[in-house]
Amino acid sequence: xxxxxxxxxxxLLAAIAVLAYGIGSIPFGLLLTQLGGAGDIRAIGSGNIxxxxxxxxxxxxxxxxxxxxxGGKGAFAVLCGFILSPFHTAxxxxxxxxxxxxxxxxxxxxxxxxxxxxxxxxxxxxxxxPLTGLACCALWLGVAKLTKIxxxxxxAAFVAMPVLLTLLNGGDLRSPIPLAGxxxxxxxxxRHHGNIRRLLNGTEPRIGRKNP
Length: 212
Description:
Elements: H1 7-24, H2 28-35, H3 51-55, H4 60-84, H5 89-105, H6 118-128, H7 130-147, H8 150-167, H9 176-191, H10 193-201
Helix pairs in contact: 1-4, 1-5, 2-4, 4-5, 4-6, 5-6, 5-9, 6-7, 6-9, 7-8, 8-9
């Protein structure tokens, strides 16, 4: 992705990566639950800072706001990459998407203990490729509604994401945007290792439960 790019472009991509990481690392779930009087989300349920765990507080409004803001920061980071690198938009958007999700999963402000990247990854996907983003969101919601298990929907969406991005970008997985989609998918799936284990043994909690 970067072999033929001049040095100044590589430096710009590095700057975009830092910016996107900073945007992605804003812990909206933690901030909203504290401001909303729901306490420290890290001491509730699974301890995750994402919308699914915020829902376990019983505060649906806070969970919805967390979902929208976490998705929004993924999309906003990609938009920043697009604006800041008008002549190399695909690499810039790909770098921004990947590092926004990395920032959410490993925020420096929380000692690198963040969320699982689902909403941020879907927001980034919507900005990278609206059709892919919409398809992945529909798959996530559909599988989650069918199974009543949020992680099942998330895993289905992120398994599909790199496939869809590749098909919509000429079938070349090595191009920047499909490659970013693959790396994001691998990161999100890896962050769900505990969920995968519980899905396999039938102990994964259902949507809406307050306990993990």
